[in-house]
Amino acid sequence: MDSTPLSRRRDFLQTAGLGLMGWPLAQTFFCTTTPAMAQSAASTTTASALPQLNRFPRMMQNWLVDEVRAAEARGNARRDALKTKADAEAYVKSVQQRIRECFGPLPEKTPLNAKVTKTLERDGYQIENIVFESRPN
Questions:
Q1: pLDDT of residue 2 exceeding 60
Q2: Which pTM value belongs to this model?
Q3: What are the extents of the domains in the chain?
Q4: Residue 106's pLDDT band (cuts 50, 70, 90)
C-alpha cells in the first residue's frame, strides 16, 4: 500500500525540501540585478540609514544607563571640587549619613554567646577556636 496519505505526504515533503534546497542556486543564475545596481542599493541602505527596530524593550535600560551616567558625572564634579582636608572630611560624613538613611537604623545588639571549642597553645600566644551566635536563637 504505497498510496497511503502518509507516504504521499512524506514524498511531497521530501520533494518540496529538495526544491527549496536549490532556491539559492537558482537565484544566482536567474538574478536580474547588475553589480552596479547592487552597489547603489547597498550604499543607500547602510546600517546608519536604517531605522532602529525593536527599540522599546531597551528603553528602560537606556534610561537607567543615562541616569547612572548623570549621577556619576555629578559625583565626579563634586569630588573634583574638594580642595582641602576639611572639604574631604565633610564629604565623607555626608556620604556616610546618606548611606545610614538608605539602610535605616541598625538592628539591636544581641549577645553573641561565644563558646571556646578548642585552644591551641603556641610559644608566647594561643589560638582559640570559637563559635558564636551571629543571629539570636
A1: no
A2: 0.41
A3: 58-103
A4: confident
The answer on pLDDT for 3 being more than 80 is: no
Question: Which position has the grid cell 552597489?
Answer: 39
| Contacts of 132 by beta carbon, 8 Å cutoff, 6+ apart | 112, 113, 114, 115
What would the 3-class secondary structure string for the chain be?
CCCCHHHHHHHHHHHHHHHHHCHHHHHHHHCCCCHHHHHHHHHHCCCCCCCCCCCHHHHHHHHHHHHHHHHHHHHHHHHHCCCCHHHHHHHHHHHHHHHHHHHCCCCCCCCCCCEEEEEEEECCEEEEEEECCCCCC
Output the nine-digit C-alpha cell for 49: 540609514
